Amino acid sequence: MKRFLPGIFIVVCLVQWSIPALMIHKREQTLRKGEVFLFKTAPVDPYDAFRGRYVSLGFDLNSITNDFGYTHEVRNKQMYAALVRDNAGFAAITGLTEEPPAAPSIPVRIRYSHEGIIRLTLPFDRFYMEEHLAPVAESVYRSASRSDATNTFAIVRVYEHFPVLEDLIINGRPASEYANEQNP
Q1: Rounded to whole angstroms, how far apart are CA atoms 37 and 155?
Q2: How many alpha carbons lie under 13 Å from residue 155 in its C-beta half-sphere?
Q3: Based on CB atoms within 10 Å of each CB, which residue in 78, 138, 147, 174 is the most buried?
Q4: What is the pTM of this model?
Q5: Computed from CA positions of residues 24, 25, 31, 34, in that sequence, does the dihedral angle turn out positive or negative?
Q6: pLDDT tens, 73-91?
Q7: Contacting residues for 84 by C-beta, under 8 A, at least 6 apart
Q8: Cα first-last separation, the chain
Q9: From CA 9, how far away is CA 12, in angstroms rounded?
Q10: What's the rounded Cα separation, in Å, for the pair 126 and 134?
Q11: For the stretch 95-134, what's the b/e string if a residue is b when 16 or more beta carbons lie within 10 angstroms of its beta carbon?
């Protein structure tokens, strides 16, 4: 048995290192090869001190019209949302399916359906930034998203039904630029 311990140890180490490496590879593949979708953001609740150093995002697509025939009995169900771009270039959902469709799609969770509205949870609601810049960007984002005149959206890449949040744009500029200006 002692003869096999070094071999077992090596196999266990390889497995432990391969899982994070595969996760990083999947994210990087999505950023290189993924199709770009713009998700229009929506105002969020005030800052939550327990969440840490990131910008908490809300999206217009968290609430969609129930054109898919789901009832109020559908709760906490994992689905795939098929994506297209609307006339303004922003992401729109054309259907919800239990299996990934051939078209670009993202996994979503139906929170509930009530009176013709489906409330969804998208797989991304946090935009991580450098620790000292995130609070400043959060403040700029909250101020901008409350104004009707802003053009605030998230750039999301989708590759093989896997979404990666690439950037947050506030009035045509990345959130990091606002944060760097206010926190040199």
Answers
A1: 6
A2: 14
A3: 138
A4: 0.73
A5: negative
A6: 677 889 999 999 999 889 9
A7: 91, 92, 94, 103
A8: 60
A9: 5
A10: 11
A11: ebeeeeeeebbbebebbebeeeebebebeebebebeeebb
